[in-house]
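ARCHIVE CARD
CATEGORY: sequence design from structure
SOURCE FIELD: tokenized fold
FIELD CONTENT:
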């Protein structure tokens, strides 16, 4: 199953021993692992991951949860916009090329509804050279990370957009 492959990759990336809970679907084992390893306060920063590659979105979710973030996922900009409008989101990790509502148009819509979130966007995309997004990427003030991105680089950018008061990602 797809989650076994992703679970093994996340387990290797985090240097986890190959134990039984590593073979559970991604949404299940990170919380068990957090409960085992985290004795600090309940995470307060909510990150929304928007990517039509579900396996990748769940991988980001697992990695961010391990680092103390509360994480929601959406498979496209339309789903993500509903979450932004109906919930409390502190930062957004977003792909560009997605069905329904692309990342650049999602950014514009979030700017209309929740302008304070524009400075809390991070674009993670394999389309940095795509002429379709070239002018947008040059004009946007949000960080743009090309895929694949290391977890250290992602956490560093996330910490930067959230500010030093988060204390979660180091």
């Amino acid at each position: 199953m797809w989650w076994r492959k992703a679970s093994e990759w996340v387990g290797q990336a985090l240097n986890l021993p190959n134990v039984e809970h590593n073979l559970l679907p991604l949404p299940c084992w990170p919380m068990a692992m957090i409960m085992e390893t985290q004795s600090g306060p309940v995470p307060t920063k909510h990150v929304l991951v928007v990517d039509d590659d579900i396996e990748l979105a769940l991988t980001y979710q697992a990695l961010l949860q391990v680092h103390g973030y509360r994480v929601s996922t959406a498979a496209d900009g339309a789903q993500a916009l509903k979450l932004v409008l109906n919930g409390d989101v502190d930062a957004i990790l977003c792909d560009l090329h997605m069905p329904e509502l692309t990342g650049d148009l999602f950014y514009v819509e979030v700017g209309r509804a929740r302008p304070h979130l524009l400075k809390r966007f991070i674009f993670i995309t394999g389309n940095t050279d795509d002429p379709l997004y070239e002018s947008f990427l040059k004009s946007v003030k949000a960080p743009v990370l090309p895929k694949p991105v290391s977890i250290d680089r992602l956490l560093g950018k996330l910490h930067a957009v959230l500010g030093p008061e988060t204390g979660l990602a180091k």
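CARD ANNOTATION: Strands lie at 46-50, 70-74, 91-94, 121-125, 144-146. The chain has one domain: 40-162.
SHELF: design records, drawer C
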